[in-house]
Amino acid sequence: MPNTRKGLTKKKISAILGICLLILSIIMTFSSKLGLSDFLPSWEKLFYSAGLSDDKQETDSEFSVHFLDVGQGDCIFVKSNGKALLIDSGESSNENKIIDYINKEKISVLDYVIITHPHTDHIGSMAKVIEKIEVKNIIMPEIKASLVPTTKKYENLLLAISKSGANVIKAENGKSFELGNALLQIIAPINDYDDLNNYSVVARLSYGNNSFLFMGDAEKQAESDIIKSGADLRSNVIKIGHHGSSSSTSKELLEIVKPQLAIISCGENNSYGHPDKKVTDLLEKYSVSIKRTDKNGNIVITSDGKNIEVLTER
């Protein structure tokens, strides 16, 4: 005789789940009177565990730092309690990727944009980003006239900034800005230099007990000035300067920052040989874990103000 048992259909499963939720609803209604509310899950957690939440893949609810894989360049996106920051934008080939990423994160306004310095691997896509997404404030260094680029990309960027109506802020050591519940502090540039890399805006972002240090392309000369400034550099995470070039990341800097994690943004099989083995060896010597965009793709770090969690694309 053939087996006529059909098992549980989708309708039956839905009905059973509905009954369970109804029972839980009754329990939760009286839980405050019975003193049980502290032991019961919230509705948000309940629906998430049941697989019914629309927020299945939220990278954070409060604070997250996203190091985007833009090849041989830099691009960092930060969300903090509904506010957003973008640092650099890689080459122009990344325009759509960056805009799509920000839109996917449900951000329609960038509260701050930091342009660390005007090399194309840091500003290439920024004009298009500024055109497509509202920007409130732009932080950038004041560079001496002899170093100001005359490239079309830089001209396009200045034009986009002018049209945006954003408030342009000169990057100066000691300035600080609120980003949601996080604090953004400008560390550098400090002096005048003969190299654009050393004009890089260096910033420290703190959220609760966790801190992130973004070094741009600052080289050892700028690092020395930063150390002499006496600024608080201690950070859980450091974005290594100049894509891991040997011209950056001195042992003196690491001894002060004391990072647990280093992020290196560089292109796969890039012609510069970044990151330099001297730098990765030094990081290993100081027991600093390393994540790289060329190997790990996008790197997302979330924080609850006490602990950090690292998620990688690969």
Descriptive account of the structure:
The protein is globular and about 45 Å long. The protein has two domains: 10-49; 63-312, Metallo-beta-lactamase, Chain A. Helices cover 31% and strands 24% of the residues. Mean pLDDT is 87; it is low at 1-14 and 24-60. Strands 6-5-4-3-2-1-14-15 form an eight-stranded mixed beta sheet, covered by helices on one side. The chain has ten helices and 15 strands. Helix 3 packs across helix 5 (126-132) and helix 5 (126-132) runs parallel beside helix 6. It has helices at residues 10-34, 43-49, 95-104, 120-123, 126-132, 152-164, 220-229, 251-257, 277-285, 293-296; strands at 63-67, 76-80, 83-87, 109-114, 134-140, 167-170, 176-179, 182-188, 202-207, 210-214, 237-239, 261-264, 289-292, 299-303, 308-312. The protein has 314 residues and is an alpha/beta fold. A hairpin with an 8-residue loop joins strand 1 (63-67) and strand 2.
